[in-house]
Design goal:
This protein is an alpha/beta fold. It has a domain at 1-107. Helices cover 40% and strands 19% of the residues. The protein has 18 helices and 15 strands. The chain has helices spanning 2-6, 10-13, 19-23, 29-37, 60-74, 84-104, 124-132, 135-138, 151-167, 185-197, 265-275, 278-281, 311-321, 340-347, 366-383, 400-413, 429-436, 444-447, and strands at 57-59, 111-115, 142-146, 173-179, 203-212, 231-237, 254-259, 286-291, 294-296, 302-306, 330-337, 354-360, 391-394, 418-421, 440-443. A 9-stranded mixed β-sheet has the order 1-2-3-4-5-6-7-8-9. Helix 15 links the parallel strand 12 and strand 13. Helix 6 (84-104) packs parallel to helix 7, helix 11 packs parallel to helix 13 (311-321) and helix 15 (366-383) runs parallel beside helix 16. The two termini are 38 Å apart.
Length: 451
């Protein structure tokens, strides 16, 4: 029972490459001759199990590196070890031989990583064998593509993608990583065909290098997955007009965006607010925005934001968040000006359960800042009668005015269970007793939630 589990993805988890010898036990005479030509005279004993049939996950780059390690072991006393070019040719031949063996002996992949940083050359016979053994890719569910930069990488990747588009329609997760700015029509066309050929794509992710700005209809191809797509991840890419296709995705629940270009940050937030109108905004339950110093990592629309003090950036972000106001459950904002716009945003959060704010006011004396912040919180307590948040973090209950505002909110709302006070030990005993008649006061760390 354990053997099929242990041999699902041995190229990723095996500490020693000696497991490759078990695969080679099923080599034919012709293949063994190839090994002997390189001085590999190892005897491969017959195995009880047909190990290639258990393979479910494969990373082509790991396949290459495990083959390299295996060759270094079996040729430990060989004179060939000092010849790097010859060694590379041996590795390529062994990699192709091993891959051909896996395909022909019944392996059926669920996950495939097309990484080409090390595995550079695939012989034409590999793709011929794929055509003769369609089961190898027919059940593929997770596909990752990365490190496509050089011409030989592009050619290999394009050929593999053509095979994927031809032999499987069951991919649910497609991740395109380390995608370069260069334009190659064959590469983009192959990716578009993969996207369009699938019947149930649920997660699509793309990571650019050098801030990817053009997608040549690749993102637009997601229109074909509008009924199944549930999550989109965008990293170091410009949100151009192609991303408006997301408006048509009926079941999109999760959107994660990372923008790493300081100059483009404001523009990207503005584009986000246009792309995600109220129609789609109300459906999304998880929004993640990592934009320069803006950091948000929500789970079930849990928002954590750390800003860099740019008021224009703050305004743009708050405008973009309006679409998601009805769904926010957890809100944690650091280093933001306590503006009217922020107070309005908080006042609209009818599902809010956790609130944590760390605000600033440029050039304003501390006492004036405290006064303004407390006035804003008092206004929120007094007006947000439908608010349902259960936990509130506060730095200190300074005076009777603050305590009365808190008590008034508890009387009207009746949903607040805990108030975490950072300066818990500094609480006035009379204020403590008065407030605790309506809500439990606890130390800040006791109810602090990290998401």
């Amino acid at each position: 029972m354990s053997i099929p589990i242990l041999w699902r993805e041995p190229f990723e988890f095996s500490q020693s490459p000696l497991f490759i010898s078990k695969y080679f036990s099923s080599l034919g005479k012709c293949e063994k001759i190839i090994l002997k030509e390189y001085g590999i005279n190892e005897e491969f004993s017959k195995t009880i199990f047909d190990y290639p049939r258990f393979l479910k996950a494969l990373d082509l780059s790991s396949l290459y590196f495990q083959a390299e390690k295996w060759i270094e072991l079996v040729l430990v006393n060989s004179n060939l070890r000092g010849d790097n070019r010859l060694k590379h040719n041996i590795i390529i031949d062994i990699t192709n031989l091993l891959l051909k063996l896996l395909i022909e002996n019944g392996a059926t992949l669920h996950s495939l990583e097309l990484r080409f940083s090390g595995c550079r050359e695939f012989k034409p016979e590999i793709f011929y064998v794929l055509g003769q053994n369609e089961q190898f890719l027919s059940q593929l569910q997770h596909l990752s593509l990365s490190a496509i930069k050089f011409d030989f990488d592009i050619d290999s990747a394009t050929t593999w993608l053509k095979a994927v588009a031809k032999y499987t329609t069951k991919i649910s997760t497609l991740n395109i990583e380390v995608f370069y700015l260069d334009y190659n029509k064959h590469k983009y066309r192959a990716l578009i065909n993969v996207i369009k050929s699938q019947k149930q794509l649920r997660l699509f992710g793309i990571t650019g290098v050098g801030f990817l700005t053009k997608f040549h209809s690749m993102i637009s191809a997601l229109e074909s997955q509008k009924n199944s797509l549930q999550e989109v991840r965008i990293d170091t890419c410009t949100l151009n007009e192609e991303f408006e296709v997301l408006k048509n995705c009926k079941n999109l629940e999760t959107l994660r965006i990372r923008c790493c270009d300081q100059e483009c940050c404001d523009q990207e937030l503005s584009k986000l607010s246009k792309i995600l109108d109220n129609k789609i905004g109300n459906k999304i339950s998880t929004l993640e925005v990592i934009c320069c110093q803006i950091y948000a990592q929500p789970i079930a629309l849990i928002l954590r934001l750390e800003l860099n003090g740019d008021e224009n950036q703050e305004y743009t972000l708050l405008e973009a968040l309006k679409s998601f106001c009805p769904n926010i459950i957890y809100l944690d904002i650091m280093n933001i000006k306590f503006s009217t716009k922020l107070v309005e945003l908080i006042s609209d959060l009818q599902k809010l359960q956790f609130l944590s704010l760390q605000c600033y006011t440029d050039g304003m004396p501390d006492e004036e800042l405290k006064k303004r912040v407390m006035q804003a919180i008092y206004r929120y307590f007094a007006q947000s009668l439908q608010c349902t948040f259960k936990k509130l973090l506060i730095h200190k209950i300074y005076n009777e005015k603050i305590s009365k505002a808190l008590i008034e909110f508890c009387i009207r709302n009746k949903t607040l269970n805990y108030v975490g006070v950072y300066k818990y030990l500094d609480l006035d005993d009379n204020i403590r007793k008065e407030v605790e008649a309506y809500v439990e006061l606890v130390t800040f760390k006791r109810i602090l939630v990290y998401c």
